[in-house]
């Protein structure tokens, strides 16, 4: 009796323990619905936050270039669409092969134009945002040549198609000619591939890279200058508004053409739309924050100072200065210009003063009224700008070319 009473309890205990183990296994298993808790004794080091990356901004000139590139791309796409419409059209006058091949020529020609636009959009259209915008545009020339070769080969297809269907008697003549045209297209494609490799590597890439380093600050400073003029004259805001409104109207007209769903007409809608967008963005050249590029608010001074033309500006400084110090690398040129400006200075000063006679005395004598007027104007400009004019040997203020250009140090 004692054994009989305890057996059921042992079985129930074993069953309960087994059930608990099974539940624990399910909760800790990889395929169960439970999740294992994180061990609080093990601290997890948070990953360092990724600093936000600043995307370079495209300059206003680049924005206009991008619009031009998009317009060219849209033009190419329109030509290709017209080619596809020609292939699908019902023209009983032409053999089917000729109609299809002619449409193929238009398609390839459109791709060529669109490829050209790609280079402008992705290169010059990204001034300020890419390192070598000139290199991108120039390097894309190889792709344009390749597409041109494909177009020429398509012309060979058209020539061959003239010997099909009801024009089959012409096959012995047109087939060899078409084959020659196709081979010419193949050669052009090969040349385009090699040209692309040449333009994207080696000395050409170095030249385009150096050119980009000049063009980027050049366009930036020119835009600053035009925006400064637009702000000073009060024309920046109204002109920008006018161009934005005009561009939006043109773009809306393009959308209407696209939605018209008419052969030949509808494909041109994209061109008109992109043209309108380009016109709308062009107003930024006159409207913006602007900024003084150089001393005294002269944006042209900043433009010239930022360009790698130290030798040239040094030479100009030698012309406008006293000539003391180290020799300018443009000494032969500046010496010649010194004689010219000296002659003009003597005339502007009435011809008085000591020193040797100017070698241009006969000419400067004839120009005395003009140079007198110019001298008065330059004196007025310098007076308005608040610049201190240096005094020469003749007692008259010098022309001060470095001051006018913002080159004075």
TrEMBL record:
Residues 1-32 form the signal peptide. This is Collagen-like protein. Residues 91-288 form the Bacterial collagen-like protein middle domain. The keyword Cell membrane does not apply. It comes from Cupriavidus plantarum. The keyword Metal-binding does not apply. Keywords: Collagen, Signal. Residues 28-68 are annotated as: Disordered. Residues 34-47 have a biased composition (Low complexity).
């Amino acid at each position: 009796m004692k054994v009989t009473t305890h057996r059921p309890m042992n079985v129930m205990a074993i069953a309960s323990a087994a059930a608990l183990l099974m539940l624990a296994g399910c909760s800790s298993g990889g395929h169960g619905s439970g999740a294992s808790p994180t061990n609080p004794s093990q601290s997890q080091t948070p990953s360092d936050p990724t600093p936000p990356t600043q995307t370079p901004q495209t300059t206003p000139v680049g924005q206009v270039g991008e619009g031009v590139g998009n317009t060219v791309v849209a033009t190419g796409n329109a030509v290709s669409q017209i080619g596809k419409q020609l292939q699908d059209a019902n023209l009983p006058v032409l053999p089917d092969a000729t109609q299809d091949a002619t449409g193929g020529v238009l398609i390839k020609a459109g791709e060529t134009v669109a490829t050209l636009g790609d280079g402008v959009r992705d290169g010059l259209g990204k001034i300020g945002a890419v390192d070598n915008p000139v290199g991108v545009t120039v390097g894309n020339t190889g792709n344009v040549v390749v597409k041109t070769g494909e177009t020429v080969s398509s012309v060979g297809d058209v020539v061959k198609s003239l010997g099909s269907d009801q024009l089959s008697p012409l096959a012995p003549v047109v087939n060899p000619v078409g084959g020659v045209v196709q081979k010419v297209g193949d050669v052009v494609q090969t040349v385009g591939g090699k040209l692309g490799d040449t333009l994207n590597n080696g000395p050409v890439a170095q030249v385009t890279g150096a050119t980009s380093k000049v063009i980027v600050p050049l366009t930036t400073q020119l835009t600053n200058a035009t925006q400064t003029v637009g702000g000073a004259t009060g024309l920046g805001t109204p002109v920008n508004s006018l161009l934005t409104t005009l561009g939006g109207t043109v773009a809306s007209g393009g959308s209407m053409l696209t939605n018209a769903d008419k052969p030949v007409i509808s494909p041109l809608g994209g061109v008109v739309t992109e043209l309108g967008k380009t016109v709308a963005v062009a107003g930024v050249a006159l409207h913006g924050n602007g900024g003084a590029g150089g001393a005294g608010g002269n944006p042209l001074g900043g433009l010239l100072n930022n360009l790698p033309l130290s030798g040239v500006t040094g030479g100009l400084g030698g012309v406008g200065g006293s000539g003391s110090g180290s020799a300018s690398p443009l000494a032969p040129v500046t010496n010649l210009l010194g004689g010219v400006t000296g002659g003009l200075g003597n005339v502007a000063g009435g011809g008085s003063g000591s020193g040797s006679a100017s070698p241009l005395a006969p000419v400067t004598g004839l120009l005395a009224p003009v140079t007198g007027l110019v001298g008065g104007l330059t004196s007025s400009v310098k007076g308005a700008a608040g610049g201190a004019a240096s005094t020469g040997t003749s007692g008259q203020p010098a022309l001060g070319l470095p001051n006018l250009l913002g080159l004075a140090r």
